[in-house]
Every structure is written in structure tokens, then in C-alpha cells.
Amino acid sequence: MTSASLSPRLARRHIRSTPAAPVVMALLLSAFAAPAFAQTAVLPPVAYVPPTVDSVVTRVNGPILDVLDGNLRIDVTNATITGGDDRLANPLPWSGILVGSRIVAVVSVPDVIPATFPPVLPATSVVVYLANSGNLTGYVQSVDVAQGTFMLLDTTIRTNAATTWSGMKADGSPVKGLSDLSPGMLANVGVLADSSGVLAKSVLATAIPTTRIVAFRGKVEKIAPPLWTIGGNVVQVTNDTKIVGDPKVGDLVDVLERIQILPPGSAAPTTIPVAISITKVLLTPPPPTNRSVEFDGVVDALPPSASATGAPLGHWTISGRDVLVNGLTKLDPGIAKGDSVHVVGVVVPVSVLAPTTTAGQIVALEITKL
Predict the structure, then answer these.
(1) 204: closest CA among 165, 243, 231?
(2) What would the DSSP string read from start to end of 16-58?
(3) Model confidence at 306: pLDDT above 70
(4) Which domains does the chain have, with CATH numbers?
(5) How many CA atoms does the CB half-sphere of 244 hold within 13 Å?
(6) Does the reported pTM lie above 0.70?
(7) Which uninterrupted H or E stretch holds 8?
(8) Comparing C-alpha atoms, which of 334, 341, 340, 328 is closest to residue 367?
(9) β-pair partners for 139
């Protein structure tokens, strides 16, 4: 008896509900539906995505959490529970999950659909976010330091000693507290709602910069206090300007200056940049350095004269390279033009030998026949 002669209900029993069943069925169907040449095609791998529930807890019954208004339940008895909010300790007990908390749970789905409703899915991991928490982004409307509050999105936001602060003010200095806020600053605020209103957990605020720092190098052309002309640029020198090296007219200096930035459309006059520091540049040549070199080559040419030991000293040409051989070079005896050799040496700046040049000279330490 074949499955075709069975009733549809009995025939379905021969196909088990296993993870491999869809793949087997796809292969069987493709064998009949696809052209012969398509049977050799390789299917791209599909990344595994675990079953996940992202929702708000509407009811708590021990380790059983109701989400989606009770249409789905999650069992967190054996789950690893962590806090997605930095105010929560990690890991968390399941008793730390409250009604109203947002959770992101990775769950296991049984192969057989349960007869009871709603289904209860066992969770393997749960990330819990505080109830009534969120993030607000907008421009600061007002600041009340005495009350410890500021306005954002027409909402009064409280701060306390636990509020964390970050960001940058218009002058480039960091935001460290409520007194550093000013209307017009863009703020991203992590908030928590409670019976007293909205509390800021964290504040990241930035302002449109009114100044920027610029660095450049140039020669001092004119000194007429409080103005210096350096590389065609005029800077103000104040009591706060740090001057290093006692630079004079004609000296090369590095300048760090602060430039005022005017808002778009401003009719205010442009101010002269203020020098933060002026440092004299000391131009000193680098000390001679040696660099090891090692290569194989063929002797193209040798000096015409030989030393008392019979080894020709001076400049050898080895595979087109100029190699200096001196009395300290260790040489295999009998090296002649056309021989294959192995050279070990160092590259020395020629300025050490001839100060008018800056090229490098290979000085042989050892030359051996191959």
C-alpha cells in the first residue's frame, strides 16, 4: 500500500514534524519541478535566528510572565536574566522582573503545539529593561539650576546626584552637570518615569561650537605686541599664551590658536584668532643610523688594486649595487669577477663619509662565495 492510497490524514503521519522535514521536502519537490541543470545548484547557507519575544510584561505569576496582554506566557525559571539598564545588577533573579518591564527573551518552541492556551514558552535568556524608562532627544528649552531641572520637549526633567553627564559646551569644555546646560543645546536623555515625574538617568548634551582650535607652522614675520604675524597669519598673544623657546623674527614656530566661529548670517565682526601656544621649532639633523642589509648577487666589478692580504679593497659592484669593502670585511679567499656571493652588511648614510651628500652606502661586513 502506498501513501497515495491512504487517506490524507493517515498519509500525513508519515511526515514527521522535525527540523529536517522542510529541507527534505524542498529537495524532493525540486527534483520534480526544477530543470536537470538546476539540481546541481548550491543553496546559500541561512543564518540561524533563535525564536525571540520582545514585549512588555503585563502580569507576573512567579517565574511565569504574561506578555501581549496575556496572549503569550514565558517561563523564566531556568533562564539567564540580565539587566539592559545600567542601574540593574547582573545577573537578575526572576523576582526582579516587574509588571511594565520590557523584556527581550530567547525562547524554546516545542515541536508539538500544546493543547492548553495561552502557550507557555521556556526562556533560555532574558534581557530586562526598567519599567517606564526610555530616551528623549531634543533641544534644551530652559534650565533651572536651583530646582535641579531642565525643560526638554515641553517636559520638566528632574536630575539628582545619580544623573550621569557627558557632552561638550560651545567653548569645547566638557558638560559635567546641570549648570553646564544652556538653552539650544541638543540633548539625548535616558529617563525614568515615577510618581514624581520624569527623572534623568543620563544626559548627553552638545552645543554648536563657538570656537575651534587650529594648528599650523610658519616663520615669525613680525612681532608687534599684542599681535604677531606668523606665516602670513595674524594672531593675538595674551597673558595666557604659552611661548616656548623664545622665538624671534625669522624663527620657525608651531602655533596653536583658537578661532571664533560666528553663527550663520551673523553680522558681528570677525575677531583675530588668539594664540594658545607658540613653540619655536628646533631643526636638528637626525643622528646617523645603521640599517642591516643582506642579499645574494654576482660580482660585476672589483677595484683594480689589492691589499696586502690579496683582497681588493674599495668599491665592489655586486648585481648593480655599490658595496664598500674595507679592512674589517670578512672575505672568502679567491673571490673574482663573475662569482656568485652572499653579502651581509649595513647601510650607512654617506654623510658620515662625505658630509655633502645624503645617500646611503652599503658597507660589507662579510662576503662569502655561494
Answers:
(1) 165
(2) ---TTHHHHHHHHHHHHHS-GGGGGPPPPP------EEEEEEE
(3) no
(4) 3-40 (no CATH), 52-129 (2.40.50), 133-206 (2.40.50.320), 211-280 (2.40.50.320), 291-369 (2.40.50.320)
(5) 13
(6) no
(7) helix 8-12
(8) 341
(9) 186
